[in-house]
TrEMBL record:
Top-level division of the source organism's lineage: Bacteria
Protein name: Response regulator
GO molecular function, one term: phosphorelay response regulator activity
UniProt modified residues of type 4-aspartylphosphate: D60
Keywords attached to this entry: Phosphoprotein
Classification via Pfam families: Response_reg
Lineage of the organism: Bacteria, Bacillati, Actinomycetota, Actinomycetes, Micrococcales
Species the sequence originates in: Curtobacterium citreum
Domain Response regulatory intervals: 10-126
Keyword ATP-binding: no
Amino acid sequence: MTASGAPPLRVLVVDDDAGARALHTRWVAATEGFTVVGAVASGGAALASVDRGVDLVLLDMRLPDISGIEVLHRMHVAGVDRTDVLVVSSSRDQVTVRQALAAHPVGYLLKPFDRQALQDRLHAYAAERRSRDTAQRDVPMGQGDVDRLLTTGSVRVVGPAHGATHAAQDRLPKGVSPTTLERIVAALDPVVGRSADEVAATTGTSRATARRYLDHLVATGAIDLAHRYGRRGRPQVLYRLTPAP
């Protein structure tokens, strides 16, 4: 059980590189609220393991038998609705990225990344999943929620750019303006990652303000984190929109 009393989220690690598989398994196991239920090296093994009950799959795109894209496709065809996928891959070409995002993973984390980057993504995912589960079970839906569910398959609201109702805006954290949030969201892209400095420059806000809004969007699962590694210094954090499921 986690500190909140909820059972830990079950994670399957899928990577054909034995070193990466072992490393990611250790990082997930060290993250509060998560437990590793398997670590496999092929797409076929991944699909077999998902059938035995998994909450989240860390899925590499380059596998020896079938591609990660094919794994995503077969999961969709099989109707594996309760299993989410976080893509972890070195594949950066637009075709692969766009095909993966079309399957609505909870994120696309580019290799190489460090432990903190993965754990940040896992914590954001856990918060988004709890919010999603609560909304589906307990919160009465308004007409705007119903309309969004019909058109997008999701009731999650990012901001006015995604059709937020006044009630949804009232639930924003203190200090988060719907107007500024709309500008921040409009500056982001689902494929091309942007830094906090780039978002600040585009929106005309300070870096501190941009970072505060980006942190809020990460916590709600509306955007995804990635890292850009240079020759020196710490990796630069990049932000991308997460396509609605």
